[in-house]
Q: What sequence folds into this?
């Protein structure tokens, strides 16, 4: 427990200095607040920007933050120092994952406030965002585990987050993209956030994908550990 | 007497490449034991085996009589390790860097302050680690290793890349720690460092220990030419073969005040290493 909380506190302390990660946490929530207030197009769906950026946030922030933090600690050999002081790989991942999750929930709170969600709508929104965040951060953890340094982590996480965060938006423009996007969890999250009635299907696809990602995560961890 | 740290017949290969071949080494409480060898000799590999970061293919590695594999987390908490591959958090201050580890070891704020003071960083507690000079950064890493009051201190090239003044500071800290009774195992490719700090050194080349003992003993053992070099007061240098006949001549030179200084022809550790392996220590 002490190990997990120490890792967590270290990550919190490091946030303000770590521009790459910090920007991930605040970019989309801030953009949502600005756009939601500044742009007013007639017939625009309710909370259009909040919902759009929420989905992009899911596709990008947890994944990039996890992979960037883990790969940096590997590259700078600080992870090894923690391990030599009795922190296990699992404890490190839980501490870091909790940190990323909480930061993303803070961002989610900004979205929610900007969208003016209340009551069950608010609870539903938070549940959907938590689920999406967890799937993304596990995927980010897997990327971090399988890359030796920040460069190689970014070379994977940048294209992956591009696809994940932009597909739902692009699917509005093109049927073919929409068909492809259906296979990715951010699209399902997007449908859920926008109040789709096919809830069960969205949840099923997201769950299935979460399991695949978890499998990928476990394989990467088994193979390399946190070396 | 149980040696604090001992390795017996350690073998290690990386994918067919033998890196350690039957290495034996021992370290005692209150002594600094050196592992001297050029780059690629296998020094870091041996330290990693001792500290549980790597497993040896065969051989026995014991710490205070216990097999490395059988060490519990509590036992390992008594190791201080300083190595290049243990990094510091660049964006955090010195104090915060130490605080992370103090928390893991259950140490107090005073312990952190004392650790900073011990290495002369008491005024840099708030300085970000990436703003430190090389020598200060090195001392921060040493502070982290010393903070836990280790019984055994592993130092992997503690002064590599430092200028002589910065290295001197590190040396003094290591000697102080040793005087407290800590067993120190130190690797280096710097002969002068080994000669100055270590009560015993092992020369490692290509994964084999080619010689070991007290530095002076090693040098005496390899004094094959046995020559006395005498600098005379008139500026000339003469060499005398070191045998019984020389005694008279030397006594005469001293009596008449003609000898300014007398040196024996003992090689230094560099020369011994070269003689034994045909290789240079420092590259
Ligand atoms: N993980 C590894 N995989 C493969 N080879 C390795 C590995 N670690 C070390 N080696 C090899 O083992 C040999 C010894 O390496 P080691 O790092 O122990 O040397 P060293 O004496 O510490 O050298 P230096 O003074 O440069 O630090 C080298 O030839 C190195 O290439
Ligand atoms: Mg080395």
A:
């Amino acid at each position: 427990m002490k190990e997990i909380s120490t890792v967590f506190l270290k990550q919190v302390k490091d946030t303000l200095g770590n521009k790459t990660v910090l920007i991930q946490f605040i970019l989309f929530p801030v953009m949502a607040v600005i756009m939601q207030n500044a742009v007013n197009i007639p017939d625009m769906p309710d909370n259009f920007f909040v919902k759009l950026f929420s989905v992009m946030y899911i596709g990008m922030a947890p994944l990039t933050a996890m992979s960037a933090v883990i790969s940096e600690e590997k590259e700078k050999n600080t992870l090894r120092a923690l391990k030599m002081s009795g922190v296990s790989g699992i404890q490190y991942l839980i501490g870091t994952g909790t940190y990323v999750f909480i930061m993303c929930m803070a961002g989610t709170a900004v979205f929610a406030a900007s969208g003016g969600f209340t009551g069950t709508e608010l609870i539903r929104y938070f549940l959907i965002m938590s689920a999406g965040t967890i799937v993304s951060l596990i995927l980010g953890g897997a990327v971090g585990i399988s890359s030796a340094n920040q460069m190689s982590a970014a070379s994977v996480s940048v294209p992956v987050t591009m696809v994940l965060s932009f597909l739902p938006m692009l699917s509005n423009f093109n049927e073919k993209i929409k068909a492809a996007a259906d296979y990715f969890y951010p699209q399902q999250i997007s449908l859920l956030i926008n109040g789709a009635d096919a809830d069960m299907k969205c949840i099923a696809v997201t769950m299935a994908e979460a399991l695949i990602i978890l499998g990928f995560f476990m394989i990467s961890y088994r193979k390399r550990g946190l070396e | 007497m149980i040696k604090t740290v001992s390795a017996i017949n350690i073998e290690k290969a990386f994918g067919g490449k033998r890196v350690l071949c039957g290495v034996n080494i021992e370290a005692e409480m209150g002594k600094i034991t050196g592992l001297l060898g050029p780059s690629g000799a296998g020094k870091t590999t041996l330290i990693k085996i001792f500290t549980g970061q790597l497993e040896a293919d065969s051989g026995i590695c014991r710490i205070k009589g216990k097999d490395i594999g059988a060490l519990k987390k509590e036992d390992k908490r008594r190791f201080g390790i300083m190595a290049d591959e243990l990094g510091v958090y660049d964006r955090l201050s010195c104090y915060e860097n130490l605080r992370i580890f103090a928390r893991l070891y259950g140490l107090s704020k005073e312990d952190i302050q004392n650790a900073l003071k011990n290495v002369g960083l008491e005024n840099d507690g708030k300085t970000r680690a990436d703003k430190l000079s090389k020598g200060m950064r090195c001392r921060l890493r040493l502070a982290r290793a010393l903070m836990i009051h280790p019984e055994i201190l592993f130092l992997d090239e503690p002064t590599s890349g430092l200028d002589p003044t910065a290295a001197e500071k590190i040396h003094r800290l290591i000697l102080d720690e040793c005087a407290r009774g800590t067993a120190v195992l130190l690797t280096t490719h710097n002969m002068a460092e080994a000669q100055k700090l270590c009560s015993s050194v092992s020369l490692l080349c290509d994964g084999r220990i080619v010689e070991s003992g007290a530095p002076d003993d090693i040098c005496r053992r390899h004094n094959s030419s046995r020559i006395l070099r005498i600098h005379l007061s008139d500026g000339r240098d003469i060499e005398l073969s070191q045998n019984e006949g020389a005694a008279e001549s030397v006594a005469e030179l001293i009596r008449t005040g003609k000898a300014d200084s007398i040196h024996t022809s003992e090689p230094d550790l560099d020369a011994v290493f070269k003689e034994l392996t045909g290789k240079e220590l420092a590259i």
